[in-house]
Amino acid sequence: MAFKRNIIITGGAGFIGSHVVRLFVNKYPEYHIINVDKLTYAGNLANLKDIEKASNYTFIKADICDFEQMLTLFRQYNVNGIIHLAAESHVDRSIKDPFTFAQTNVMGTLSLLQAAKQAWNGDYEGKLFYHISTDEVYGALEFDGTYFTETTKYNPHSPYSASKASSDHFVRAFHDTYGMPIIVTNCSNNYGPYQFPEKLIPLFINNILQGKPLPVYGKGENVRDWLYVEDHARAIDVIFHKGKIADTYNIGGFNEWKNIDLIKIIIRTVDRLLGNPEGTSDKLITYVTDRAGHDLRYAIDSSKLKSELGWEPSLQFEEGIEETVLWYLSNRG
Ligand code: NAD
Hints:
Elements: E1 5-10, H1 15-27, E2 31-37, E3 57-61, H2 67-76, E4 81-84, H3 91-96, H4 98-120, E5 128-134, H5 159-178, E6 182-187, E7 189-191, H6 200-209, E8 214-217, E9 223-228, H7 229-242, E10 248-251, E11 256-258, H8 259-274, E12 285-288, H9 303-309, H10 317-330
Parallel strand pairs: 1-2, 1-4, 2-3, 4-5, 5-6, 6-10, 7-9, 8-12
Antiparallel strand pairs: 9-11
């Protein structure tokens, strides 16, 4: 069967990627979805058990840094769109091992761009290179009610955000230099099912379930904006189909939380769902030395995405946290 579109999704076995792959495979049977993932510690094919046999889905285990293999895949599958999520994504790991982050996030992105450029060979009709990035490239905000907008100057502080910023620049450079149709989106912190349990929300849910300490950096005063992962996947769908070429969209939940308040909500929700009296797990909160270079506040203005493309988050935070805790309760490792 000839598919209407052949789309590579990189990092599709990871947290956000698995939600994007699932959405596209189920919603667009006329598209062929080719999931390219190296299966690092963060990739897990069990995340995609429900769609792995779909006739419009192919999994390829590969490293995006392998340029020759990427070029072969673009040609073999006649790829006309790519949604690029594969990355090293954990800030704490980037502080210990920045080289791996430069390799995958910068060189891997460049390898995909170059493969797309050679395979498309100047024929950009109906093609799109869609790069998924983070709000962390913008640096940090004060507690002053300001937001990151699409025109905020890049000012990354961690090796992770520096590598993502660099990859964003390469993607835009391929548009400006070669005319490649690209889109970049910068999203705030995601939460929801299938996240690797080193990240704050699944780590804390698991620790509460096991009665282990909940390590809070500094005084827990850092502020993050949180978005339910399925809302991010929906935004990616809308932008992939209706976004303006060469444009940037911020994606966020207008949902800022101090870490310590977020932790208290998680504790309350887990205790309630387990039938424990309120406050049972409060004693697990343990303050630890702050992360080096810890950005104070991230807050993203996603009003452009709402006004131009009509997207907005669907879930209230308390609902999203409840869904997430319920998922981890029924999928205990
Ligand atoms: P993740 O760590 O859960 O998944 C990353 C996936 O990429 C894994 O499946 C891994 O196996 C794969 N991968 C890593 N290196 C690879 C390589 N060299 N070749 C092929 N595959 C490789 O990450 P995530 O949280 O799902 O994030 C996905 C993307 O979204 C990243 O680009 C990240 O920067 C961005 N992002 C994440 C968040 C968040 O809150 N998680 C927020 C904004 C943006």
